[in-house]
Design brief:
Layout (H helix, E strand, L loop, with lengths): L4 H15 L6 H9 L8 H11 L3 H6 L2 H5 L5 H25 L6 H12 L6 E7 L5 E9 L9 H10 L4 E7 L9 H15 L4 E9 L2 E4 H4 L3
Parallel strand pairs: 3-4
Antiparallel strand pairs: 1-2, 1-3, 4-5
């Protein structure tokens, strides 16, 4: 027997209230955010289609609003609701990094970068500027390029670091191709930026490559 649409929504919502959000599946979490389905599409069926279409929550969070809106039962309004939820999380992670040592919460850094860069259709080079306690001062997208490359100018990076009075930086850029492996050009650029910043006593802590749900760390690869 098919569960009525209203009941399908109430089940995950009531379980969330009784047992907490961690008790819900990915599909149920999306169903709660969507609130209701439409004629012919129960809310949990719509949520399941969204999760499957983008291969999980990470893919859904990174997806373009227009692509999410195309799923039957979602449309522009519900796609906007999901995007707003993702943006709230991104801002919460930003606040978390601003309050404490970014290096002590590497998952927060990765999640923030994934939410910020994964869905970009062109390459974007971003920098996290940190104070002496490695707390986030600002996160700037300094350069934008094409589908496969972007031009980064060390002079502008140094200028921005001095402007924020930063003690350290973390670099990040995305690969719209979906391949996270850093190129030789990425490695050379990182060393060039690190050398330029050393001249003004600013440390380079890491460089991340974001490709879809994958976030690769240069530091963990021994490339910094």
């Amino acid at each position: 027997m098919r569960i009525p649409a209203a009941t399908q929504h109430e089940l995950p919502r009531e379980r969330l209230l009784a047992r907490g959000a961690a008790a819900l599946t990915d599909v149920e979490l999306v169903a709660v955010m969507l609130r209701s389905g439409v004629r012919g599409h129960a809310v949990q069926d719509v949520a399941r289609a969204a999760v499957e279409r983008f291969a999980g929550l990470a893919g859904l969070a990174a997806a373009d609003v227009a692509d999410v809106a195309e799923i039957p039962g979602i449309g522009p309004a519900k796609a906007a609701q999901l995007r707003a939820a993702v943006e709230m999380l991104r801002r919460a992670l930003h606040e978390q990094m601003a309050r404490g040592d970014a290096l002590s919460s590497p998952d927060a850094v990765r999640d923030y970068l994934r939410l910020t860069l994964a869905s970009r259709p062109v390459e974007v080079f971003a920098t996290l500027f940190l104070d002496t306690q490695h707390r986030l001062i600002a996160a700037d997208e300094l350069f934008r390029g094409t589908l496969s490359q972007t031009s980064v100018f060390p002079r502008e990076v140094v200028k921005a670091a001095l402007g924020y009075n930063a003690a350290a930086v973390i670099f990040a850029h995305n690969h719209p191709s979906g391949v996270a492996e850093p190129s030789r050009a990425d490695e050379l650029l990182t060393q060039s930026l690190k050398s330029a910043l050393m001249l003004v006593d600013v440390r380079t802590l890491d460089h991340f490559v974001v490709a879809g749900p994958t976030v690769l760390s240069f530091a963990e690869r021994g490339l910094i």
